[in-house]
Amino acid sequence: VGGVLLGLDLGTAAIVSELARTVLAAAFVAPLFWWRDTEAPPAVRRWMKELRPQIPGCLLSLVLPGLLALGRLGGPVSEGLWGWVLGLSLVGCPIMGATLFGGEFEHRTMAGLLSQPQPRFVIYRQKLAILSVLLLFTTLNAVLLLMVAPGWTWDFESCLWVLAVVGGVFFTTPLYTLLTRSALAGAIFTAAV
Fold it and tell me: What's the half-sphere exposure (Cβ side, CA atoms, 13 Å) at 168?
């Protein structure tokens, strides 16, 4: 999609970017509705249980920036708005990382989680797999938004900033949340770092 967007004029690139982000959102939402109406296997129910607390941060990272960028299809959007679009896209990342384990502490279910007949590494890996998929969606959304932003050029530094934020969230927010036993503190410490 990136190669296609770079070769198109700005209006067509914005439409292609919107379509790509719509497909990303549909790929995320459709399985949730499908398994909600049918009887899901136990493994799928466990994944959906882990995914449910991540939805607010994911919506903040995917939907709100997409709605702000929709104005690009109707006409020019001010340069300041694009900073908000990218900022909101990356603000949801620490929220997703913090709610990974923060919900277990807030609802006092950490003891029940650790007493399951599964190794702790399997539980940790399952939670991080959910986070990595959501962060991948967020990264793709941020890159697609950047490609249609006015004045943005495809350079290594811009991509490095997006990857640094997403990578920092993936590696530090769950750790800070576990150390402080608070989702809010985990997100704040990640933002401070």
Answer: 19
Angstrom CA distances, 34 to 133, 174, 184, stand at 18, 29, 32
Residue 169 CB coordination number (10 Å): 26
Strands (E), the chain: none
Question: Distance between CA atoms of 138 and 87, rounded to whole angstroms?
Answer: 12
pTM above 0.90, yes or no: no
- Give Cα 132 distance to the centre of its chain: 8
Beta-carbon contacts of residue 156 (< 8 Å; ≥ 6 apart): none
Q: Which of 189, 44, 41 is nearest to 130 (CA)?
A: 44
pLDDT tens digit sequence for 114-171: 787 888 888 888 888 888 888 888 887 777 777 766 666 667 777 787 788 888 888 8
Strands of 20-129 (E only): list them: none
- CB of 109 within 8 A of CB of 49? no
- pLDDT tens, 31-74? 666 666 667 777 777 777 777 788 888 888 877 776 666 655 55
